[in-house]
Design brief:
The complex is a heterodimer of chains A (259) and B (333). Chain A is α/β, with parallel strands linked by helices. Helix content of chain A is 33%, strand content 28%. Chain A has nine helices and twelve strands. In chain A, strands 6-7-8-3-9-10 form a six-stranded mixed sheet, with helices on both faces. Chain A has a four-stranded antiparallel sheet with strand order 2-1-4-5, with helices on one face. Chain A has a two-stranded antiparallel ribbon with strand order 11-12. In chain A, helix 4 (114-126) crosses helix 5. The longest helix of chain A is centred in the C-terminal third of the chain and has 18 residues, at 172-189. Chain B is mainly α. Chain B has one domain (6-331): ABC transporter involved in vitamin B12 uptake, BtuC. Chain B has 14 helices and no strands. Classes of the chains: A alpha/beta (259), B mainly alpha (333). The A-B interface holds A 47, 50-52, 72-77, 80-81, 83, 85-87, 89-93, 95-97, 100-101, 103-104, 106, 108-109, 111, 117-118, 120-121, 124, 130, 133-134, 156 and B 1-4, 7, 85-86, 89-91, 147, 213-214, 216-217, 219-220, 222-224, 226-227, 229-234, 272, 276-278.
């Protein structure tokens, strides 16, 4: 079954087209990594998929149903977004933050029940932040905070998870932790993962499919080995890249080539 | 997962703050230009004192309405500050500082000068004034800058100054009897409290309940607009419900008690430090605690001067303004 299909999506800001007829089909349980240069429209695409931004034209289907048929809450219970940044002006504890993920499943006056606390506890254990439950978010490192946000998204019990550059500003060890978490989510929880990343090596290592976006258009979609070619990357990023094979995993390994 | 239940905290907090509010109200019944004993007050309250007794008249017609009005105004302004801070994600947002109270005052004065009745004329005109300023502040500080202290405050200060100019303009057009009444009312004066103002509690209670129902969405709003929308919150409707309800209740109390500043800054800030950011706890705490705070401030306003009394707005500004400066300084740090 198809997880997400978007067809001919256009988003405009004033006269500028941020997305210009973008189309892609993402199968259920895929791990799609969206790559492309700055300003290509990657984050905008994620916002369209989770209903934060309306598309000027085009259609989005989520699990076989048109996006318009979903209410705001139903969409949030199906598609979870891990945003790039989170406000830390007034900070909650880790446990309180993760529990907020139950919001799409609760009515306005409904209190969280034992089941909701159990789900939040499991999400914290899954992302290994349960020992931080009583710490405030502003007391955590970037990597810990990112795992908390993933735990909150898991707590939404979504079928599709969107992540906006979750490894940006993380050290290599934490990048690996976050990416392996996504891989486990896909395998153990059967969640479709759609992630925006600037890290081409992480994309090649973990992505089951890659979508290369440039100037709001889909340039090419396919397996990492099909997409990560010197020609594709040079055309998209405008700089030379050398690609060989990762000696351990056999996936494409991308290196920058200075002029 | 350890269960951090807001219900348990509420069960502990509500009786404590309820008793505190009750004690401040009872204390305010005892203190004044004529000292009453606790027995006088109790007899009057239980209806055992003769109706014509001086004590009964003082308690029922003067001090109790004043204490209850102070509690209603304090609770409303505190809750107003809490809602603005949550929706705008700005700890310095408050109805008085953002000029919402000023807008309500302009609306109320226009209605007063037009000879409209206190309800619905003055109240709704006041609500209209507060809504105009609120929309103005949000438009001026819209977009990415909405959450930033500087742009919101600048917009608020500018519209507040404009409202002050409008007030002075309107006062200069009115005759001397009206000027006296308006000036007293403007300074945040609770001395005009009357038993017939107690109808105020009904619409205020409805507003309190509505805002309490939105306590969890307010928590989610604190994580950022995109994050809140991604959790299924309908931002536009939640914003209009919260800010519309708040403007309505603030304009209700402004039309009754004039401009009382900084309550919406001091009380939510104090309770947030004490109880954390969960609005399911903060909303009731601000209603009860804000009520008790303004009853106490009013008590000081009545007791401190050697003769007569000063407007309660003087006391709240003397406490609130230094705190505002401190918070502004800390935000820049």
């Amino acid at each position: 079954m198809n997880g997400v299909i978007f067809d001919n999506i256009t988003v405009t800001a004033g006269k500028k087209k941020i997305l210009n007829g973008l189309s892609c089909t993402i199968r259920e349980n895929d791990f799609l990594v969206i790559i492309g240069p700055n300003g290509a429209g990657k984050t905008t695409l994620l916002k369209v998929l989770c209903g934060l931004l309306p598309a000027a034209s085009g259609t989005v289907h989520i699990l076989g149903r048109p996006q318009e048929e979903y209410t705001r809450k139903k969409l949030a219970a199906t598609v979870a977004l891990v945003p790039q940044n989170m406000s830390l002006e007034f900070t909650f504890t880790v446990a309180e933050t993760v529990l907020m993920g139950r919001a799409p499943h609760l009515g306005l006056l409904e209190q969280e029940q034992v089941e909701d606390y159990t789900i939040a506890g499991e999400a914290m254990r899954f992302t290994q932040v349960d020992h931080l439950a009583d710490r405030r978010l502003d007391q955590l490192s970037g990597g810990e905070r990112q795992r908390v946000m993933i735990a909150r998204a898991i707590c939404q019990q979504p079928r599709i998870m969107l992540l906006d550059e979750p490894t940006a500003a993380l050290d290599p060890a934490h990048q690996l932790i976050v990416m392996q978490l996504m891989q486990r989510l896909r395998k153990e929880e059967n969640i479709t993962v759609i992630m925006v990343s600037h890290d081409l090596n992480l994309a090649a290592l973990f992505g089951s499919r890659i979508l290369l976006v440039q100037e709001g258009k889909d340039v090419v979609t396919g397996l990492p080995a099909e997409i990560m070619t010197p020609e594709n990357l040079q055309q998209a990023y405008g700089c030379a890249m050398y690609i060989d094979t990762h000696p351990v995993t056999g996936t494409p390994r991308i290196s920058l080539v200075p002029e | 997962m350890r269960r951090s239940s807001p219900n348990r905290r509420l069960l502990l907090l509500l009786p404590i703050l309820g008793v505190l509010l009750l004690l401040t109200v009872v204390f305010s019944l005892l203190v004044g230009s004529s000292t009453l004993s606790i027995m006088d007050v109790l007899l009057s309250l239980t209806g055992k004192g003769a109706d014509a007794d001086t004590a009964s008249i003082i308690v029922w017609r003067i001090r109790l309405p004043r204490a209850l009005l102070a509690a209603a105004v304090g609770g409303t302004l505190s809750l107003g500050g809490l809602v603005f801070q949550a929706r705008l994600r700005n700890p310095l947002a408050e109805p008085y500082i953002l000029g919402i109270s000023g807008g309500a005052a302009v609306g109320a004065i226009v209605a007063m000068l037009s000879g409209l009745a206190m309800f619905p004329g003055v109240t709704f005109s006041s609500f209209g004034g507060s809504m105009v300023v609120m929309v103005g502040v949000l438009l001026l500080a819209r977009g990415r800058a909405t959450g930033r202290s500087d742009s919101l405050l600048l917009a608020g200060v500018m519209l507040n100054a404009f409202c002050s100019a409008c007030i002075m303009f309107l006062i200069s057009l009115s005759d001397s009897a009206q000027v006296h009444h308006i000036l007293f009312w403007l300074m945040g004066d609770l001395s005009m409290a009357e038993p017939r103002q107690m109808w105020l509690f009904l619409p205020l209670a409805a507003c309190f309940l509505l805002i309490f129902a939105y306590a969890r969405p307010m928590n989610i709003l604190l994580t950022g607009e995109e994050s809140a929308a991604a959790l299924g919150l309908h931002l536009r409707s939640v914003t209009w419900i919260l800010l519309g309800t708040t403007s309505f209740m603030v304009s209700l109390v402004v039309s009754q008690a004039g401009l009382v500043g900084f309550v919406g800054l001091v009380v939510p800030h104090f309770f947030r430090l004490l109880l954390g950011p969960d609005h399911r706890v903060l909303v009731p705490a601000c209603i009860l605690g804000g009520g008790a705070y303004l009853v106490l401030c009013d008590l000081l306003a009545r007791s401190l001067p050697a003769s007569g009394e000063m407007p309660v707005g003087v006391i709240t500004a003397m406490i609130g303004a230094p705190l505002f400066v401190f918070m502004l300084w800390r935000a820049r740090e």
